[in-house]
Design brief:
mainly beta; 0% helix; 4-stranded antiparallel β-sheet; 49% strand
């Protein structure tokens, strides 16, 4: 599966952005999809994940209540709606996929498929 993330940009604190991750190749309707981010000088960290049907979601504590993951399996696209953005949300955001139904894994090394990343910058 190939993943293409988009939608990043520059936004003021308190603003919103919606990221998209378009998939091609292998079917994604049976995949768990995840979002991660990496700030300069820091390790890549888990943001959230969504199961194949879109019913179950898992969020990092730092974004719960502000970020929302959704998916459209017909369009093969996963979204990350980011509201009430903070300067500490500044990072490169990556989407990832896995096919083992491990919905709770937060370790980047356990996710086999990755998109190229999109930059999100939140100004104070």
């Amino acid at each position: 599966v190939q993943l293409q993330a988009s939608g990043g940009g520059l936004v003021q604190a308190g603003g919103s952005l919606r990221l998209s991750c378009a998939a091609s190749g292998r079917t994604t309707s049976t995949s768990v999809m995840g979002w991660f981010r990496q700030a300069p000088g820091k390790e890549r960290e888990f943001v959230g994940a969504i199961n194949s049907s879109g019913v179950r979601k898992n969020y990092a504590d730092s974004v719960r209540g502000r970020f929302t993951i959704s998916r459209d399996n017909v369009k093969k696209t996963v979204y990350l709606q980011m509201d009430s953005l903070k300067p500490e949300d500044t990072a490169v955001y990556y989407c990832a996929a896995r096919y083992d139904n491990n919905f709770y894994s937060r370790a980047p090394r356990e996710w086999p498929y990755w998109g190229q990343g999109t930059q999100v910058t939140v100004s104070s």
